[in-house]
Amino acid sequence: MKTFFQIYQHFSPELKRRFWLLFFGMVFLAVVETVTVGIIAFYAAAISDPQATYDAFMGYHFILLDPSQLFPGFSIKLMIALFSLLLIIAVVIKNILSGVVTYHIAKFSAATESHFGSRLLDSFLNRDYQWHLNKNSADLVQKVNWRHFLGRYFITSCLKMTAEIAMLMVLLAGLLLVQPLVSLLFIATQGVAGIVVYRFLRKGLDHSARGCQEAETILNRTATCALHAIKDVQISGARKYFVDGFQEWGTRFSTLFGKQQFWQESPLLALESLGFVMIAGAILFMLFGLEYSPLETTGTTALLAVTAWRTLPAFNRVVSSMAGMRTAMPYVSSLLEEMSEMSDLRSSGEGTVGEKTISFVSAIKFVNVSFSYDGHRSVLQALNFEIPCGKSLGIVGPSGSGKSTLIDLLTGLLWPQGGEIRIDDKLLSEENVHSWRKSIGYVPQFPYILDGTLAENIAFGQAAQDIDRERVVEVCRMAAIDFLDQLSDGIDSIIGERGIKLSGGQRQRVAIARALYRCPKLIIFDEATSALDEDKDFEIRQLILQLKGKQTLVIVSHRPSTIAECDNIVKIDRLL
Ligand code: ADP
Ligand code: MG
């Protein structure tokens, strides 16, 4: 219940509205179902003993009106025909309504799923870079996928349970009117038994559900890692390692899953056994304890059986929905944790509120900047330099000396522990970093190429209809994308997931075009040519040199030759 309220708080107003509509729809269905059951019972009675029913019907006076006068010529046959019609109408209405409610439950659950999925993805993308450094991306993807547990399992179970409870209430209210004592006894025993059984089995259920969640995370991580590193896996023959690892956890998962399903079913099994024990016990008690005659016993038992027939399945479904919700619980609570952390971030002012702009016309200054990833080992210490607008800066140092770290500081992905970064004498801070990043074009060593067209890759993050196609062609020319002619559909050619259809040099050009597309004031090349062979390296360097003087450039390399022509050079050394 508490979890449901937590989820409910994250609903959008539209979802809340739909939830209540659905809720009342379900209560209405419960009433219709009960009425139908009544009609069926009545119909059965009418068929088995038409004469008695007819007499009862004719003897019944509607507010002083005599039915025999009101319906002259009303025969037994006519009565049965009338009841048949009533029965057909009731059953058809009930089933249509039931179908409509099923449709809406599914639709609502799926809508909740996608609502939470997109909020979650948004929250992950909004997290700072430092947070991501400590996370496994496969785990994050899986968390987004766990929205199924929230919608399909949790919300659906929750709604179904509410519907069943509503039906049970209406049904039990009806039964109480007809046969109060037996029903009350029955409800009380079943209710208490249900609660006891549920409480007793809850621990086992929780334990196996959590185990399953852990195993699934590891399975997913293994598969994702192996597929991302397909080249290395194939060349180094590491296939067996990954498959074995997967298999091992798969076996572990299967045991846990078996247990989980067992615990989920067990309340049903236990309650059913209990139900029969109760009925048999009641009969024996009446026969031997109260010394009833067998005839009396049959009468009471029949009533008990009818009550059980209607209430037990509904009751069981309530318990199994509860178990289903319990199974989804570990997944749902980890999503909810994520969501509440996100709202904390929002309320502490991160995001779009209080956004400030930053301009860059004179210079970027690093003043005594120090940084460490773990708080112990410094990567950068008391770094001072200046990048005047329009000039180029070369950053050189051996591999692992902290060049990429410096760039992450410059782009505001990481924050210095000491000193400050000033842009036009304004301190770079969380408030203006989004504005600052808009004026940066970044070319990494291994650019990420989306599984899409060349144009989509250059206009990274723009919807197809918003892409400025002329600008795309222009930057392709600026980035010397000469392979454009070889592509069958020009800038609309698909270049494959992670750019597998392109060579390293071609990927680098796409990345340069991507950086240029946004008309940045500052372009950063982080080892942009290091992965290329010598003549390609030369070509790209020429390309970068052409930009010199037009744009502010920061060029990072471990090769001194690459940055030889920069206006200023900063050397960094490996600390340790
Ligand atoms: P460069 O780009 O000059 O090769 P980096 O800036 O990538 O060097 O790394 C500088 C140092 O910081 C390295 O010693 C590396 O081990 C360490 N480092 C890089 N990223 C992380 C990280 N996410 N967590 C901890 N240490 C890191
Ligand atoms: Mg680097």
From TrEMBL:
InterPro entries per the UniProt record, alphabetical: AAA+_ATPase (IPR003593), ABC1_TM_dom (IPR011527), ABC1_TM_sf (IPR036640), ABC_transporter-like_ATP-bd (IPR003439), ABC_transporter-like_CS (IPR017871), P-loop_NTPase (IPR027417), Type_1_exporter (IPR039421)
A Pfam family recorded for this sequence: ABC_tran
Bilayer topology term: Multi-pass membrane protein
Domain annotation ABC transmembrane type-1: ranges: 24-327
Listed GO CC annotations: plasma membrane
GO-annotated molecular function: ABC-type transporter activity; ATP binding; ATP hydrolysis activity; ATPase-coupled lipid transmembrane transporter activity
SMART domains per the UniProt record, alphabetical: AAA (SM00382)
Keywords: ATP-binding, Membrane, Nucleotide-binding, Transmembrane, Transmembrane helix
Superkingdom: Bacteria
Domain ABC transporter: residue ranges: 364-576
Main location class: membrane
Transmembrane segments: 20-45, 74-97, 153-175, 181-201, 268-290
Protein localization: Cell membrane
PANTHER family reported for this sequence: ATP-BINDING CASSETTE SUB-FAMILY B, ATP-BINDING CASSETTE SUB-FAMILY B MEMBER 6
Protein name (database record): ABC transporter ATP-binding protein
Species per Swiss-Prot/TrEMBL record: Geothermobacter hydrogeniphilus
